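subagent[fold] <- orchestrator: predict structure for attached chain, return tokens only, no commentary.
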Amino acid sequence: MIQLVFWILATCLVYALNKQLYRRFNTLWLSPILVTPLLIGAAIVLSGFTYDAYLSSTRPLLWMVGPATISLAVPVYQHRAFVRKWWLVLACGTFTATLTALFTAAELARYFGLPAEVTHSLMARSISLPFAFAVADELKGTQDLTTLFVVMSGLFGLVCGEIALAVLPVRTEQARGASLGAIAHSIGALKALEHGPARGVMASLTMIFSGGLTVLLAPLVSRFMH
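subagent[fold] -> orchestrator:
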């Protein structure tokens, strides 16, 4: 019981402090999705605690993924007028990002001969964690690998996305937001919000719709590729 309370409090405290640092210095390398796992991982290793024991102790934090998924419906409802106005951009961004992510993940996994468990976890890499966990559970992937792939995909997508948007002739804030939300999920949405509400709202909505569509299509694509 003491370990459960300690690791939950430690995880929440490290995340809260990390978030404050990120808000103050606003640099990618202080992002909570990158730094917090590294610090917690280092603490686990140095303390001699096992990873399985940490997962068991912090299980209540994973239970919050369900409510977090449901709460994503709130911004969709709040910005329903925005959705009606920009539905074509949202639709194009959602379908393009979802199908590209699913088929490239499946093809790369097949090319390199990756095990089914890794392949199914990899197919959830391009969406935010609540949706990614749903895909991993449906396809019999693992939450550990899924989390790793989601974080790596988000960071890589943000860096490459910022470079691409600086080079490509994508002029409207809505199109730029849709791009970041599609390729870098929650990390991209947070970055887009820093550039203004129009880009931030579009990124958030694209992220949500891409996640929902991936949950629906991932099992179909997995069966089709096999």
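orchestrator: received. Logging for downstream: The chain has two domains: 2-63, 73-225. Residues 197-225 form the longest helix (29 residues).
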